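Key result, reporting period 2: structure in, sequence out.
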């Protein structure tokens, strides 16, 4: 996988967060959302769709991400 170039983010000097959610809807059960702000100078290699990574590689990427990124997870239910 090619390293990201941050071309779109370069025009914004402030941190930019990537956000994703999982869940059907609050009426169908809890929704989990996460936001991540990556350090443009210390971008960890190996980031990909978590469903495309084997469990051991996914865990290794997670360990690297939590050391170099600002992140948060939220859970909401109806």
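The corresponding designed sequence is given below.
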């Amino acid at each position: 996988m090619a390293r990201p170039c941050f071309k779109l983010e370069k025009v914004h000097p402030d941190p930019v967060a990537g956000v994703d959610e999982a869940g059907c809807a609050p009426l169908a059960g809890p929704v989990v959302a996460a936001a991540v702000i990556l350090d443009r100078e210390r971008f960890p290699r190996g980031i990909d769709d978590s469903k495309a990574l084997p469990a051991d590689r996914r865990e290794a990427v997670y360990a690297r991400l939590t050391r170099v990124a600002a992140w948060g997870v939220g859970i909401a239910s109806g």
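The CA atoms of residues 55 and 61 lie 10 Å apart. The helical segments are 55-68. This case is discussed further under Risks and Mitigation.
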